[in-house]
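Class, look over these structure tokens:
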Amino acid sequence: MSQRKGETPYHVLHKLPPGDSPYVRAKHVQLVEKDPDSAIVLFWKAINAGDKVDSALKDMAIVMKQQDRAEEAIEAIKAFRDRCSKQAQESLDNVLIDLYKKCGKIEEQIQLLKQKLRMIYQGEAFNGKTTKTARSHGRKFQVTIKQETSRILGNLGWAYMQQENYLAAEVVYRKAQIIDPDANKACNLALCLIKQARYAEAQSVLEDVLQGKLPGSSDSKSRNRVQELLQDLEQQKSLPLSTTTTTSSLEDAFLEGLDQLMSQGSPNKSRRLPIFEQISSLRDQLAC
């Protein structure tokens, strides 16, 4: 396609990589022609041709998820991730976590999240760097180890909530709030406390959001959710205690999972991040 002087290049206009390789053709079909099924076929061809395998596998899995083919995407990542670079593995793990979540594979999600926490503790996350560049809606931004740890803990807390293990979820959300607090995780923490019939503690957490003490407190969705949780809290208070408590335990959440994170194969002290010293302290308090 000819380009006039001063005209924006075609690949830039459509946010495509330059060239005419199998991967570029797959992206064109995905983004310009908007034919996901054909794009998946072309991504397969790119992977088999060894063309930008890191990106092709990740993009194909994302398109498969959008087409409700999440199980197939999981198998594809497991089968072909050994063809990808070391730098691509963290990104593939993030895609896998989303796929496990979509498929309801909660235990697999929990194990992978723990693995990511272990990598951070051992200084292996972000390929040994303290920050990484991420993308969202076409924009680049920097993510710190602190932010990533809080994000992973938040996802881990959500996963434990799906298993109705509210005590484990509470512990994880509390740690996430110490590291990088926000209103959304505060609401999730409050819900965990409500499920355990610990209403005064839940109300205190929600009051912090209403008083604007946490980032995101002014967001309308957060404030609406606080009101919903407060209504739920009052309703639960009026019910007999036996109907509001849910059996919960730490199980392997901290005493096994994070305990192993602290003690097994511990790296040199110089590589141990301060946030994990805090986690270890909290774990010891819970074990008492």
Residues 9-14, 259-288 have pLDDT under 50 and may be disordered. The longest helix spans residues 145-162.
